[in-house]
Amino acid sequence: MKPIEYLRSYSRADLMRMLGIALFFILLTKVIFTYIYTSAEAAVVWVPSGVSLGVLLLYGKRYWPAIFIGILAGYLLLDRPLLPSVSVALFSNTLEPVIGAWLLSIVQYRGRLFNATLSDPADLITLSVAAVISCCVASISGCVLLNIFGIYQWGHFVVDMLHWWMGNLLGILLITPLILTWCKLTPAWLSTPKYKIEILSYLALAFISGQILFLGWMNNFFGDSYWMFVFVCWGALRFGLHGTMLVISMIAVQSMIGASHGIGIFGNNNAAANLINTWFYLITLSLVGMLLSTVIQKRRQSEEQLAEHEMRWKYALEGAGDGVWDWNLQTNEVIFSKNWKAMLGYAEHEMSNSLPEWECRVHPADKDSVLADMQAHLDGKRSTYANEHRMQCKDGSWKWILDRGMVFSQTPEGKPLRMVGTHTDITRHKQLERALKQSEEDLYTLFAQSPDGIIVIDETSAILHVNEAFCQITGVGYDSLISIQEEKFDSIMQELCGENSTYPATAHVPHPSVVSFVLQNSTQPRRRTTDRGEQIEIFIPEHRVLLRSLIELDQPRLSRVMYFRDITAETLIDRMKSEFLSTAAHELRTPMSIILGYAELLKLRSFDQNTETRMVDSIHDQSQSIVILLNELLDLARIEANAGKAFNMVKEQIAPIIETLAETFMLADDTRKVKLLPLPKLPELMIDKEKISQALKNCLSNAFKFSDETSEVSMEVVLNQTADKIKDKSEVAITIRDHGIGMTPQQLARIFEKFYRANPTGKYPGTGLGMTLIKEIIEHHHGRVIIESEYGKGTTMTLILPVPNT
Amino acid sequence: MTHKLLVVDDNAEVRNLLRLTLSFGDYSIREASNGVDALNIIREWRPDIVLLDIMMPGEKDGLQVCREVKQDEYINDTFIAMLTARGQKQDMQEGNDAGADAYLIKPFSPMELNKMVKRFTLVKESVMASFSRNCHD
């Protein structure tokens, strides 16, 4: 840096301060030499050393010009020669604090740099070391310079150097801490009133003792210099560095005055000896005092910090409502915090601090798990201990407690020694947990048991929930559906729909929407309930119609839900109904058009006799057809509506019914009669005569209708007597055989279906209800119907009725 | 001019009814009981009008017959009236799509049938008349 710039780096404030310091030095030098010492060599405490180091430590090494100028001015005012003054002032008096400050900025003790607040004993040690070295340097250079200038003699070099070093060292040790502490920190006791009295009496007593000891008051009343250590200790304990240094400075002044004037306990020997004695005394006193006060201060600080920490944690825990326990595993003593006891309803004094107090209150059902978890932690298997269990309160009730803890100290052998932990009251939490779980279970049950398939999609367009009904209805497995993306789901469904129908993908359908589509490739076994309430499984691929409702959910986690309802049955019924309606309509319309047509024609004109007769006959026949049709319809409707009530069951003989039927039954335009084989002896049966006639008539009607006039229709009745151990299981079987067109296996499978007509053209008129009626009637009689048929050969129908037990 | 009429229905009574109904006019009437026969007669005999039932057994039902006739340019001037018991809108649409010229739902009034047939014969006569006039010019 250029000189100009260097000068400019000092601010106005700096320059003012430096001026003040320089003036102070001038004054100090004057005072020392006028009142205290006769010569520099006799200086036991070289105050300027302490001040100069203090200044540099407070304001920085760049304040050195102030020191140089001040000391030089001081020398000059004492009429010292110019050149020696300048060189000594520069290379000794200024160099010393500069070196000292520099050393303190780089030396570390136990990883700590020097802290000018002197808060740690380590600071004193670094200060002492720096002082020793810098004083050494200063004394050597000073003595050398003075020898060169002829003021000192080379013969006295070592002694002079030693004196110099001793004086400077003590100066630093006494004054620098004094300056640093008083300039850096305000003592706590300065502002507290009760301290003021103490400090005053302290200083007063010290002063008086000093006067007695060092300056001959009261004629050396007591002559032990060690008494001052009392004051040092008192200061260290009560007033810290501030007080201690103050008193030590005072003692230093008193003892030095005494020593140099030959009075007091340090005044007994010759001057040199006195000063040496005083020096050693003061060094000891100050080192002890400073160390003691810093150590005590540091200790106090640590204690305060610790207390603060403890307070913090204590308030944190207690404030949060938790209890704290501290367990000594060797003595089994446990310290329970106030909150711990309060949590269980006890006041502090109502529970002692021992392990059994805790152990006896743990719920017996939870004890095993608690001990297991505890042992796992103690054995080192788990890094912490945590367990939720019930504890008994004072009033006998139970609370759920979350117990957590950790071993934090071990015996020298490595066994756990001390463990500390907390108690948190989670009763409410547990209640909520249980309620939630229950609610969840309830809802899940409803979800799982729903007859509709449900698919829930989350905000990432992945499937979140699938219920069992969906898998049942579609035959797709749960694992292949969960968590897949919506697009994949669409493609799976499309595959099920096959090529001929479209699965309406959600993207193309407005929301909310209800769409139906056909699953053609579903192979899921379907349970069909027979009319008797049985459930049978059908393993054939079949059409399935599903109704999908899609609802957009306005939720952060769920984006939409789809409900799939199996409406196959309804659709089938609808289809059957419309088929029936169109068929029935057709069946009614044809006879109607003939009746209407002929009737209108007859109104319009007359025809020849034969034609007219024929027309009227036709009208008559067709009307009858309509009547039969209507009756069938009504019968079926009635049976369906009034299951059971329509039947009038009476125990009677069936033989007469059969015989009459065989006699009288004939189909219109058909000359044949049924051939009845001889009847065996038959027991009485529980029958509704009218309905059984109806059923037999329908059988005969079909037999005649589907065979031509050349073939024979026969009827046979057989009694099958069987019995098992418990009861008689005899049956009566009525068999009607024809040699007509027969049925294919496919037609036979559907024969009993409502409105099913194997031959839907007009050739064989009918509603498709005939067989259905037979089945309904026979089933109500607790019997069954067996049909065998071969296409092109003929059909055999057997109606079986049970014989009632007597 | 005697018009030729074909009556197609699988029910003999219905055929008889139609024959009697049409006895008011001077028509030459033939009958068929299924689609295959009907087509043969149409091609051979060339009736002017066909009364056609939709629901018939066999290979071809009424709609199929109608389609074939209308798609064959030699015979598509044949007037076809569908007679049927099915009166739903979609059935009428089907009939229309197949090319039927008229649609009657059973039961129908014989007078209505007569009127319809008469109307058509008049149309045909005037068409024939204008045709022959044009030929002469």
The helix fraction of chain A, in percent, is 40-55%
Instruction: Output the structural class of chain A.
Output: alpha+beta
- The CATH superfamily of chain B bears the name Response regulator
Secondary-structure element order of chain B, N to C? EHEHEHEHEH
Strand order of the largest sheet of chain B: 2-1-3-4-5
Major sheet of chain A: order of its strands? Answer: 4-3-7-6-5
Largest sheet of chain A: 5 strands, antiparallel
Annotation, overall tally of beta strands of chain B: 5
Helix/strand/pairing class of chain B, anyone?
alpha/beta
Helix share of residues of chain B? 40-55%
End-to-end Cα distance of chain A: 136 Å
Instruction: Report the β-strand fraction of chain B as a percent range.
Output: 15-25%
Mean pLDDT of chain B: 84
- Report the CATH topology name of chain B: Rossmann fold
- When the domains of chain B are counted, the total is 1
**What's the alpha carbon Rg of chain A, rounded to whole Å?**
61 Å
**Number of DSSP helices of chain B?**
5
Low-pLDDT stretches of chain B are none
DSSP, total strands of chain A: 21
Question: What does this entry look like structurally?
Answer:
The complex is a heterodimer of chains A (806) and B (137). Chain A has a five-stranded antiparallel sheet with strand order 4-3-7-6-5, sandwiched between helices. In chain A, strands 9-8-14-13-10 form a five-stranded antiparallel sheet, sandwiched between helices. A five-stranded mixed sheet of chain A has the order 16-18-19-21-20, covered by helices on one side. In chain A, helix 5 (82-106) runs antiparallel to helix 6, helix 9 packs antiparallel against helix 10 and helix 21 (689-705) runs antiparallel to helix 23. Helix content of chain A is 53%, strand content 16%. Chain A is rod-shaped and about 180 Å long. By secondary structure, chain A is of the alpha+beta class. Chain A contains 23 helices and 21 strands. The radius of gyration of chain B is 15 Å and the shape is globular. Chain B has helices at residues 12-21, 35-45, 62-71, 89-98, 110-136; strands spanning 3-8, 27-32, 49-53, 79-84, 102-105. Chain B has a single domain (3-136), classed as Rossmann fold (3-Layer(aba) Sandwich). Chain B has five helices and five strands. Helices cover 50% and strands 20% of the residues of chain B. In chain B, 35% of the residues are buried. Chain B has a five-stranded parallel sheet, sandwiched between helices. In chain B, helix 2 packs parallel to helix 3 (62-71) and helix 3 packs parallel to helix 4 (89-98). The model of chain B has no long low-confidence stretch (mean pLDDT 84). In chain B, helix 3 links the parallel strand 3 (49-53) and strand 4 (79-84). The interface between A and B is medium-sized, with 26 and 23 residues.
